[in-house]
Amino acid sequence: MFSYTIRRLGSLIPVLLGMALIVFMMIRAIPGNPAQTILGQQATATAVAALTKDLGLDKPWHIQFWSYLKGLFSGDLGVSLRTRQPISQEVWPYLAATMELALVAMIVAVFIGVNAGIISAWFQNSWFDYIAMIVALIGVSMPIFWLGLMEQYVVALQFDLLPTSGRDNIRDPVQAITNLYLIDTLIAGRFDQFFEVIKHLILPGFALATIPMAIIARMTRSSMLEVMRSDYIRTARAKGVKMFWVVYSHSLKNALIPVVTVIGLQTGLLLGGAILTETIFGWPGIGTYIYDAISYRDYPVIQSGILVVAFLFVMINLFVDLLYAAIDPRIKYK
Amino acid sequence: MKSPIIEVKQLRTSFQTDDGSIPVVNSIDFHVSPGEVLGVVGESGCGKSVTSLSIMGLVDARTGKVEGEILFKGDNLADASEKKMRKIRGNEIAMIFQEPMTSLNPVFTIGQQLTESLRVHRKWGKKQAAVRAVEMLKLVGLGRAEELLKQYPHQLSGGMRQRVMIAMAMICEPELLIADEPTTALDVTIQAQILELMKDLNKKTDTAILMITHDLGVVAEMCQRVIVMYAGRIVEEGDVRSVFQNPLHPYTVGLIQSIPDMRVKKDRLYSIPGNVPKPGSQNLGCQFAPRCAHAMSRCISETPALTNHENGQKVRCWLYEDGKGAGIHDSAIS
Ligand SMILES: Nc1ncnc2c1ncn2[C@@H]1O[C@H](COP(=O)(O)OP(=O)(O)OP(=O)(O)O)[C@@H](O)[C@H]1O
Ligand SMILES: [Mg+2]
Questions:
Q1: Whose CA is nearest to atom 12 of ligand 1?
Q2: Which family, according to UniProt (chain B) (predicted)?
């Protein structure tokens, strides 16, 4: 398992290099002088020259790429044109906000989705099964932005149960240690703030979780139905194992193999969905960060923001692959 | 003679299909005593597996219905609660399934699967159960037993898996072992070893065995008594020696004739013409009549009863009405 992990990590090197190259070329693909485009037509010649030098655009491209890579390796993601701050420092709170939202959404989606799928399969054709599958069908066909807006309208505006947007509305924020507010507030022992953070998480989290939850539930159900018909499940029952264990241990471990793929894919898509959800709910995450950068033509931020999201995506895939190997002993660690 | 450990009376198992409820096993009676090996033979599809699943209480309750009495140590299992059945399964009655390749769970180790009955029924700890598991693996002739406990089913050959299945069934020292074609999927040498092993276990532990097979050679090798099933009914029953030397029912005669004889080289092997009728396709008369060379008009319209014959043999055929007819031996078959 250990050497398998190392090998999988090694195979990521070309992927990461390719990603860096594409992101690197993005800015250079702008026709004419990118510095001029970034600054606009009214910019003075000195400003354009200064930015050209700042971005290193005056050097041959292979030298530019080399120094770009060297920068990446030492954790240098460039400097924001707008704020003049190093992106590697600036991006972290945004990234943490997205991760917190995505993680909460995914945990909820997996927990409810997998359990709904299991129970539907266990009690196939029961009322629970019918209702869960109808809800799941509605869930998969629901556009995220529509769901988000409806939530805001009904839950936040009409009934005033939860805040419409934002991540908290606290006067004296606790010290940011991880930038995951759920954890930071707990570390500080501020439970009032903790619940405030949860209240802000519910609506965007739900909007983000709906589609993956529905897909995971459907996938789990069909996978479980197939597994529960197999001979080895009959063997387990013939040994006198309780039905609960037959379902949640003997069946689930097998049924999870295809479900894990779906969870991985959905987590990747969820990152994309997060950008949409963040704009709707004013969530200060990486989506908002990139979105703002686009309107300011802050190219270094756009570049690095995309790189960070792509990196996350690759890491999720790696995690899913390792999870596979942990569940299914038939996967050869070769 | 010891009193039987299990007595099946008028067992009838039917399945709900598009054409209504169709009996697959019909009015079956038999009993097995401690230390005895009862053979059940019949062509594919005649209801052997359904009979054993009925005893185990593993017929899917949503589509199947089990009627009649299954008296096990005085209790009727046909209407026992799931909880009671769970305590019996794998503990007092164990089963070896037909398909060794698919009857073990691919994502759990041999050790986990082997020790499960002990942990469920006897609440043994991991260590104690592992010691016993190693003993059992050695008993069924598997070397490197300690190592084997940590392996997964895909690392084992078919013969090894079937031995594991036998060890798994015998580990709680059941009083009744149902072996559903335990050797059909194996090659001949391994088949002989496995049969020898089961015979040994039967002698050592006095376990009663219900030996289901379509191989008369296995019956001759292993059993004291045999019942011959055809299309869900018992058509002949008796001591193995009497039945082999003096088969009464034309179906039994056909089965015995179709055993390939090594000493005589024939151009073609004998086989009974036609196929087992689909359950429910024929309700009137003797089920075997359409394939029977001795069928009379009455065979098509009236169903014969299972009647007593000499030497305790029983037969369900109009040729032997009231035990008086000399049957097919008059009309010279060979
Ligand atoms: N769950 C079920 N629903 C409907 N019909 C069934 C079901 N299980 C078995 N049957 C039918 O019952 C009949 C007997 O099946 P069974 O598996 O007992 O045969 P068998 O004697 O064990 O044959 P084989 O030698 O091939 O194992 C078959 O015609 C089968 O189609
Ligand atoms: Mg069978």
A1: B24
A2: Belongs to the ABC transporter superfamily.
Does B217 contact ligand 1 (Cβ within 6 A)?
no
Distance of CA B240 to the CA centre of its chain: 15
Query: Cβ–Cβ contacts within 10 Å for residue B71, how many?
Result: 16
**pLDDT, tens digit (0-9, with 9 covering 90-100), for A220-249:** 999 999 999 999 999 999 999 999 999 999
Q: What is the pLDDT of residues A33-50, one digit of tens each?
A: 777 777 777 888 888 888
Rg, Å, chain A Cα set: 24
Which position has the token pair 């003797």?
B286
Question: Is B103 in contact with A232 (Cβ distance < 8 A)?
Answer: yes
Half-sphere exposure of A88 (CA within 13 A, CB side): 8
Report the residue of chain B nearest A229, measured CA to CA: B60
DSSP category for residue A165: S
Nearest Cα residue to atom 8 of ligand 1: B50
pTM, rounded to two decimals = 0.86
How many CA atoms within 13 Å lie on the side-chain side of A7? 10
Burial of residue A151 (CB within 10 Å: 0-12, 13-18, 19+) is: buried
Q: Contact at 8 Å (CB) between A252 and A224?
A: yes
Domains (range + CATH), chain B = 6-223 (3.40.50.300), 230-332 (no CATH)
Residues A277, A148: contact at Cβ < 8 Å? yes
Average pLDDT over residues B137-142: 87
Please provide residue B146's backbone torsions phi and psi, each rounded to the nearest 5 degrees: -60, -40
Query: What stretches of chain A show up as alpha helix (H) in DSSP?
Result: 2-28, 34-39, 45-54, 61-73, 87-122, 127-140, 144-151, 181-187, 191-228, 231-238, 243-245, 252-281, 286-295, 299-327
Residues of B with CB under 8 A from a CB of A: 56, 58, 82, 86-91, 94-95, 97, 99, 102-109, 113, 116-117, 120-121, 152, 154, 165, 168
Secondary structure percentages of chain B, helix, strand, coil, to 5? 35, 20, 40
Q: How far is CA A110 from the centre of its chain?
A: 14
Rounded (10°) CA dihedral A164, A168, A170, A175: -170
Rounded Cα distance, A155 and A116, in Å = 24
B182 lines ligand 1 (CB under 6 A): no
- d(CA A34, CA A64) in angstroms, rounded, equals 14
For position B262, what pLDDT does the model report?
A: 64
Going along chain A from its start, the domains and CATH numbers come out as: 32-76 (no CATH), 91-327 (1.10.3720.10)
